[in-house]
Specification:
By secondary structure, the protein is of the alpha+beta class. The protein has helices at about 1-20, 30-50, 55-60, 125-130; strands at about 65-90, 95-120, 135-145, 150, 155-160, 160-185. The protein contains 4 helices and 6 strands; from the N terminus they run H-H-H-E-E-H-E-E-E-E. Strands 1, 2, 3, 4, 5 and 6 form a 6-stranded antiparallel beta sheet that branches.
């Protein structure tokens, strides 16, 4: 019974750390936080374009896109994650800053830091994502990477007129989980 209590406490502590999103410094101004998100956005897009150059024209011709940074922890039968990102409307140039959190059930162990790029293929889908933000799915992957060393699998999938690219930054994980992910507007940054 004590094992369950320790595991629950560990999961709760890790979840609180992950859900902090881009608010790494409480002293940072809104402008500094927005700049940190934009820097992450630019870095991820540069990496994605280097791996798959055709994505640049796909993003440029789409109504909009989103880039998210996420950290995920898998402990035995539970998975928890959190992060932040920005949705860019290509027609208006408007940026909507968002947060994300995910919870999952399934076998897994490890920590994974990854980036996701969403390409919205129509305006209604992008608007629904920004306003409602829910996503739910199943995930199975393996990653073993630390900095420039190791291997990582990144994927591409199209769901509901959204193409999603996932890049693993660093981490070590083996998981097969069913996750619920919630994306929502960041009231502080918008």
């Amino acid at each position: 019974m004590q094992y369950k209590s320790i595991l629950f406490s560990l999961v709760a502590a890790v979840s609180l750390l992950l859900l902090g999103g881009c608010s790494t410094t409480t002293q940072a101004t809104v402008t500094q936080k927005r700049q940190a998100v934009q820097t992450m956005n630019d870095k991820v897009l540069t990496e994605l374009f280097a791996l798959k150059p055709s994505v640049r024209s796909q993003i440029n011709s789409a109504p909009g896109y989103a880039v998210f940074d996420n950290a995920n922890v898998n402990l035995i039968l539970a998975s928890f994650g959190g992060g932040y990102g920005v949705v860019t409307d290509n027609q208006t140039g408007q940026k909507t800053y968002m947060k994300m959190a995910e919870v999952g059930l399934g076998l897994g162990a490890g920590i994974k830091d990854f980036r996701a790029v969403f390409v919205f293929h129509n305006e209604a889908v992008m608007s629904r994502f920004v306003e409602e933000g829910w996503a739910f799915g199943a995930q199975a992957d393996a990653a073993a990477k630390a900095g420039d060393k190791g291997v990582a699998k990144g994927g591409e999938v199209t769901v509901d007129n959204i193409t999603i690219y996932q890049l693993t930054e660093s981490g070590l994980s083996l998981q097969a989980t069913v996750k619920g992910t919630k994306y929502w507007k960041d009231n502080e940054l918008n």
